[in-house]
Amino acid sequence: MYSILLAIIYMAFVSLGLPDSLIGAGWPAMQRDLDVPVGFAGILTMIIAGGTILSSLSSERLTRRFGAGVVTAVSVGMTAAALVGFSTSGSFWMLCLWAIPYGLGAGAVDAALNNYVALHYAARHMNWLHACWGLGASLSPFIMSSTLASGGAWTGAFLIVGLIQAALTFALLMTIPLWGKVHPRGRDTAEGSVVPGEPAVTSSTHVPLARALRIPGVPSILIAFFACCAIETTVILWASTYLVTDRGVATATAAAFAALFLLGITGGRFAAGFFAERIGDRRLIRGGFILIAVGAIMLALPLNTTVPALIGLVVIGIGSAPIYPAIIHSTPLNFGRRNSQAVIGIQMAAAYTGSTFVPPLFGVVSSSAGMWTFPLFVIALAVLGLLLSERLNRTVGARV
């Protein structure tokens, strides 16, 4: 039973990654066929991000009422329906409509699944599951490119991924009875409410947003999580441009090493799974932020060779790898099992906020100050994440 459900959850994480890079991979063809400005891709991603943030904040109430299995199955079903809807859309306004359930489904399932894994499975699985997300995100461009190369339309790629999501929805519906039968992992040190002066929290008690934000340490981890996800998406968007414009790297080489950044994240998470339990979540987070800073310094070194800069980009990916899973996995320990779903929902919202708004913010910064500020921007985010995560450690240590 434990293994069957875990296998389904692994499939779910691969499937979760599939849609995330599909729009970006297919936008050149979509923009041409729909005859809209190139910048309209930002409208779609903003609608999706808005729905994702909203559903992340609502995930705690939904999961307490219906259970993680039902929320996961319904959310994946919403995503499947949205992707099939994308495949039938012949105008941009239709894509905007389908982007609403796309975002709402993505946020709820992300928060529900992450909390369930944090409560029921070991740290190695959290790292490997997020590596599977990276695998899914890496597969989407290949699905889109093979569809277009075979003479098909971009709608065909959305249909393929939508059908994969629909098949997963069916599998999740069949396993709903199993979700309540897997026992949580060992007891944590913050079993109930950790908010001084607040009433005791039971397993069925809804934790309002205001109460969750008052839990000592929550604001710190939200900012650290914001910084972590902002680093990932900022590097994904701007690394190639920095290497070409400021370091003189050939365009093809820069693109290849930008892809290696993603492979560094995926490979780093697979590797972290083997020693995550021995090292512990705190050290993984601390070491990850330090590695990111080291990689960014290598990017900035004013040397005649670009080799350190290219290696630095891979180092940033490896450093980024364990932070997201470790923050999620440590949430029940830091804030209590009964608060973990609410806190993880807010963390997801903080993550999506950083991923959505910080890359454009750096675009504004680089337009006025220059692209050379890219490594400094990454270092600043890494230092911010490190300081706030260490502040959380002190807060939890004082409480325990």
Main features:
single chain, 400 residues, mainly alpha, Growth Hormone, Chain: A, 2 domains
Would you give an account of this structure?
This protein is an all-alpha fold and 400 residues long. It has 2 domains: 2-179, Up-down Bundle (Growth Hormone, Chain: A), CATH 1.20.1250.20; 209-399, Growth Hormone, Chain: A (Up-down Bundle). It is built from 17 helices and no strands. It has helices at 2-17, 22-34, 40-66, 68-87, 92-120, 123-149, 154-174, 176-179, 209-214, 218-247, 251-279, 281-300, 307-320, 323-329, 331-335, 337-369, 374-399. The two termini are 34 Å apart. Mean pLDDT is 85; it is low at 187-203.
Quick structural overview:
This protein has 400 residues and is mainly alpha-helical. Helix content is 82%, strand content 0%.
Strand proportion: under 5%
- Largest beta-sheet characterization: none
Provide the CATH top-level class of the largest domain.
Mainly Alpha
**Averaging pLDDT over every residue, what do you get?**
85
What is the tally of beta strands?
Answer: 0
Number of domains: 2
The gross shape turns out to be globular
CATH-assigned fold name of the largest domain: Growth Hormone, Chain: A
Which structural class best describes the helix and strand composition? mainly alpha
What's the alpha carbon Rg, rounded to whole Å? 21 Å
CATH homolog superfamily of the largest domain = MFS general substrate transporter like domains
Distance N to C terminus: 34 Å
Elements, N to C (H/E): HHHHHHHHHHHHHHHHH
* Poorly predicted runs of 5 or more residues: 187-203
